[in-house]
Amino acid sequence: IFGGIKSSPGAYPWQVSVQARPRGSSFGFSHLCGGILLKSCWVLTAAHCIEGNYDWQVVMGGVNIDKKEEMDQTIPVIETIVHERYREGQALYNDVALLKLQATDSPYCAKETRFVKTACLPSQPFPAGKECVISGWGKTENRTYSSHLLNARVLLISNERCQSPQVYGSLLDNSMLCAGILQGGIDSCQGDSGGPLVCENDGTYYVTGVVSWGHGCAQRNKPGVYANVHTFLNWINSKIN
Ligand code: 4AZ
Question: Cβ neighbours of residue 205 under 8 Å, at least 6 residues apart?
Answer without folding.
Answer: 14, 119, 120, 198, 199
